[in-house]
Amino acid sequence: MTHNVSAQKFQALDACHLQIYQHxxxxxxxxxxxxxxSHAANxxxxxxxxxxxxxxxxxQHHEDEExxxxxxxxxxxxAELVHTVKTLQQDHCWIEQNWLELGPMLRGIAQSExxxxxxxxxxxxxxxxxxxxxxxxxxxxLIYPKAKSMLAQELAERAKRQG
Length: 163
What we know:
Largest sheet: none
Strand content: under 5%
Radius of gyration: 19 Å
Structural class: mainly alpha
Oligomer: single chain
Number of helices: 5
CATH architecture: Up-down Bundle
Number of strands: 0
Distance between the termini: 19 Å
CATH topology: Four Helix Bundle (Hemerythrin (Met), subunit A)
């Protein structure tokens, strides 16, 4: 079994989870600010920053997981593990679908457009934040530890063969 992911790659994935949490908090804060003053200049800048992160870095993070973490776990004989990974893959689809609605609203806010509906925005923000939190919790509780364990086992076996 060959892993396409290294210990350093896991550090990067873990660090990205922290960035995602920070941007989710910023998104929730932005929603509160918009409810108070939807035309505040700082809201535009914050919306731009959040939209750029979730349209770029966060999407790339999901692609990295799909390419480097999930394949080895999907090849496991552990049916529960395989089911969990498939659930996470479905989460990626749901997160993306929600983002396709939410992202343009944030771009609209960033560009001082008045079409984004605050009630609709609130709904999509709540769903997006919930999906992301649940998804990361499952990854960090089960998938990452299992993948890290499999990587450590492979590295130990390789060292034993070479040593």
